[in-house]
């Protein structure tokens, strides 16, 4: 093992550049998947005729597919029908598809947990369905959703490493490139990558606990 060589300034800079790409992909995917997942979750909660059934079918289908397959599909299969994307776009699209399905179920479960009596009280006070969702159901449901949603976001950030299969220049891709230069760098670079992932994910966990305690 060559820790000194593996942690040379040029290598550390290269790893940080990969981490930055990982964070970029994760951030965009989190924002988009949260928006899409929330919309799907609300549609399923409201049991919108036909649309709710279609969403349920899509969600269950995606949830039972491996993310790696979805990444391959977006990058290698879609170009066959004329839909070409860059590596980063393909990775983001795959992550959004997969994570939206996961988040939709979290949102639906959180909304279902709101006591029916409060919903009836809101409707009897003159609020329509949309207002009841906005002012009563969503605020209470979101408090219960925070821990599982943050856990899903942490999983999403770790799942970005799967994009190494399409050579996205994220953290694990850069780790492999460095390891290809010298086999003695393998353990040190994996240790550094693990540390980087840990710091980011632990920070998210801490922020989640603080947010949850404030809402308690």
Automatic annotation (TrEMBL):
Q: Which GO terms describe its biological process?
A: amino acid transport
Query: Is Cell wall biogenesis/degradation tagged as a keyword?
Result: no
State the compartments where it is located: Cell membrane
Q: Do the record's keywords include Transport?
A: yes
Which residues belong to any copy of the ABC transmembrane type-1 domain? Answer: 19-208
What are the record keywords, sorted? Amino-acid transport, Cell membrane, Membrane, Transmembrane, Transmembrane helix, Transport
Q: Chief localization class?
A: membrane
Topology with regard to the membrane?
A: Multi-pass membrane protein
Q: Which GO terms describe its cellular component?
A: ATP-binding cassette (ABC) transporter complex
Q: Which domain of life is it from?
A: Bacteria
- Any one GO molecular function term: transmembrane transporter activity
Q: Where are the transmembrane segments?
A: 20-43, 50-76, 88-107, 149-167, 187-207
What InterPro entries does the record point to? AA_ABC_transptr_permease_3TM, ArtM/GltK/GlnP/TcyL/YhdX-like, MetI-like, MetI-like_sf
Similarity section: Belongs to the binding-protein-dependent transport system permease family.
Q: What is this protein called?
A: Amino acid ABC transporter permease
Report the source organism: Paenibacillus ginsengarvi
């Amino acid at each position: 093992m060559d820790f000194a060589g593996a942690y040379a300034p040029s290598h550390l800079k290269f790893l940080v550049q990969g981490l930055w790409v990982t964070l970029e992909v994760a951030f965009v995917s989190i924002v988009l998947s949260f928006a899409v997942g929330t919309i799907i979750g609300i549609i399923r909660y409201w049991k919108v005729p036909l649309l709710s059934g279609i969403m349920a079918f899509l969600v269950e289908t995606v949830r039972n597919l491996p993310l790696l397959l979805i990444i391959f599909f977006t990058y290698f299969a879609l170009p066959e029908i004329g839909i070409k994307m860059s590596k980063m776009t393909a990775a983001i699209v795959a992550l959004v598809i997969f994570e939206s399905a996961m988040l939709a179920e979290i949102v639906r479960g959180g909304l279902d947990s709101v006591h029916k009596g409060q919903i009836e009280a809101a409707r009897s006070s003159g609020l329509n369905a949309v207002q009841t969702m906005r002012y009563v159901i969503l605020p209470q449901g979101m408090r219960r959703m925070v821990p599982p949603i943050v856990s899903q976001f942490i999983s999403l950030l770790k799942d970005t490493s799967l994009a190494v299969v399409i050579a996205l220049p994220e953290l694990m891709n850069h780790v492999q490139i460095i390891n290809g230069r010298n086999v003695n760098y393998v353990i040190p670079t994996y240790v550094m990558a693990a540390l980087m992932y840990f710091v980011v994910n632990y920070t998210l966990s801490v922020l989640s606990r603080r947010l949850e305690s404030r809402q308690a």
